[in-house]
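Hey, quick one: can you model this chain's 3D structure?
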Amino acid sequence: MKIAIVGSGALGCYYGGLLARNGADIHFLMRSDYETVRANGLTIKSPNGDFHLDKVNCYNNPVDIGIADIVFIGLKTTANHCYKELVTPLVDSKTRIVTAQNGLGNEQLLANLFVPNQIAGALAFLCANRIAPGIIDHLDYGHVHMGNFNRAPDVIIQKLGQLFNDAGIDCKVVDDLNQARWKKLMWNIPFNGLSALLDMTVDKLFIDKELSRVVLALMKETQAAAAANGAILDDAAIDQMIEYTRVMEPYYTSMHLDRINGHPMEIDSILKAPLAAGTEKGIAMPELKKLYQALNEINNK
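Sure thing. Here's the predicted structure for all 301 residues.
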C-alpha cells in the first residue's frame, strides 16, 4: 500500500514517520523541510521513545511521487485552495483520499474535486509540534479515528486502520465520520480557539470560574449544533474531553502557534463552518460567535 503524505508538518511527519519506521511504503510531499530531510532524515522526539529515519522518501513535487493507493492529507485548512494542484497528480480511480485536517467541510471539498466514494476522513488526537526542519516534538496522545465520507467502512479503510495499529498508532475505524468530526470539534472549538485568543496552554483554561464557564458554554453550543446536524453527543463526551485536557501536558495548540508566528489561523474550518451549520438549524451560539469574531479580527490584521 503506497501512501503519499500531503502536508508534512507535525501531524503528517509524526504519523508518516511511525508508519515508515514500521516498514510501510511512505512518500512525503514537503516544501520548506525538503532539503533538510533529504540530507539529514527525519527525527521524532516522543515520550514513547525518540527515533530517527536516516532515509526518507521525500519530494517537493507531487508529480514525482506518482499515483498512490492512499493520499493522507495533513495540510492546514488555510491551504485547501491547493487541493487540486497537490492531490490530483497522486490520484487515480482506485486511490483513497484521507483528510486528517481540522474542522468541517474538508471531505465535501475533496468530494467536489474527486469521486465521493474515494474520500475518507481521519481525526487525529495529537499534541505535537514541528520545532525545527525535520524535527517533530510529540508531547502527548496520538490516537486516531478514521472513517469513510458518508458511507460505512470498507476493506480499504479497515486495512489502513490496521496499518496504523501495526505501527503503534491507536486507530479506531468509525461507522459515522460526521459524529466523529463533531465530537472532535467539541475539543477544537474551545481549546484551539481560546488558546489562540488568550495566549495560554490548554491546561490553563481551567484556572478560574469564568474561563471554565466559557469552555463549557462553547462545548454545550457545539453539542447542540452537532445534534441539529445528525450527530448525537451525550454529556459524557463533554466530561471526557474536559478530563482529557486537564491531565494533558502543557500544550500550545496549532491555532495559537499560527497566531504567534503570524500565519493565518484555521478559523474558517474550526469556528466559522460549525457556527454556520448550527445557526442554519436555528441553534443559538453566542459564545462561538464572539470567539470567531475576535479571532477573525486578529486574522485580518
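One thing worth noting: The chain is about 45% helix and 20% strand.
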